[in-house]
Amino acid sequence: MTTILNRYAQLHSQDVDCVQHYISQVFCPHNLTLTDTRQRLNARLYLRQGQDVAYGRLRYGAQVQIEPQPLDDFYLLQIPLSGQEQIHTAHGRFSSTSRLASIISPTQAFSMEHSLEADKLFVRIGRQGLERHYQDYFAQPVRGPLEFQPSIPLDAPDGASLRRLLDWQFAEVSDGSLFDQPRQVRQFEQTLIYALFELHQHNQPVHKTAAALPYVVRRALDFMESQAGQSITIGDIAQAAGVSVRSLYAGFREHLGVAPMARLKQMRLEAARHHLLNGGLSVTDVALACGFTHLGQFSADYRRSYGERPSETLSGLSRSRACV
How much is the pLDDT for 208? Predict the structure, then answer.
């Protein structure tokens, strides 16, 4: 865990004014004070910016109190790796730890106190992007300011699912190659935001979602097949089918027993196997032509589905031709 985002260091300072100024640019204007003047600040900030979402890590190295202005244009999701931070909101006060994350909404007034040992991950989600994803997901506009319940129990089933997703995303953002590609960044952000809508309580009305009808699912499948080699998201598929993302998920579960993006991966793997069995292209060319941008993940998925590596399929074809 201690290596998360180490390649993306932004700040290392022991000067309170410098730290306050720099972090105000990343988040919002705030007052930063040492609660124990015998301690010395040793702040470190790591940050990797996407499109609507930024992934970061922050520790102050001292016990500090933070009095921020409202966030206004972004949501702040925070998960301590060690130590704790006291969060004060209109909903009350709670101690955020590695088992209890927090999410602060743009219109919520709040303050925080970091313990000496506090070292936290954070995700900064742009308000406009999140509200746009809400409309795509539910096929309805946001009704008033969208606010999440501030505390997220990570040892409850929904919170544990969210934590597993975040663990994978932070690992990939830190050391993987997927986040290097702009078209993959969109999918990262969309997956996280949709998970928040499904897994965590918010103040928007949630109605029972009607599953997409079979002809709508067929329309989605036709679009997926025609675009299987392109970088498409679940939002693109739902738009092509003419339904909300949530309705599309429900329709695929009811009629096919599989999620839309899982079915898209199956389509891509089937197309890749067809190309490999027929020869003429390298494994890399086949993967890219079929919409796979992470070659290691493609090889692992292919082997899981067909019991052999893509190169073995291709070399098997070569051997069979040599014997003719």
Answer: 65
Half-sphere exposure of 183 (CA within 13 A, CB side): 11
- The answer to whether 102 touches 150, Cβ cutoff 8 Å, is yes
Higher per-residue confidence, 151 vs 187: 151
Domain ranges of the chain: 6-199, 214-258, 271-322
Token pair recorded at residue 9: 């260091």
Q: What is the 3-state secondary structure (H, E, C) of the chain?
A: CCCCCHHHEEEEECCHHHHHHHHHHHCCCEEEEECCCCCCCCEEEEEEECCCEEEEEEECCCCEEEEECCCCCEEEEEEEEECCEEEEECCEEEEEECCEEEEECCCCCEEEEECCCCEEEEEEEEHHHHHHHHHHHHCCCCCCCCCECCEEECCCHHHHHHHHHHHHHHHHHHHCCHHHCHHHHHHHHHHHHHHHHHHCCECCCCCCCCCCCHHHHHHHHHHHHHCCCCCCCHHHHHHHHCCCHHHHHHHHHHHCCCCHHHHHHHHHHHHHHHHHHHCCCCHHHHHHHCCCCCHHHHHHHHHHHHCCCHHHHHHHHHHHHHCC
CA 30/CA 212 separation, integer angstroms: 47
Output the CATH code of domain 6-199: 2.60.120.10
- Output the pTM of the full model: 0.79
Give the model's pLDDT for residue 186.
86
pLDDT over threshold 60, residue 271 = yes
| Domain covering 271-322, topology | Arc Repressor Mutant, subunit A (1.10.10)
Percent of all residues in the chain with a pLDDT value above 90, rounded to a whole number: 70
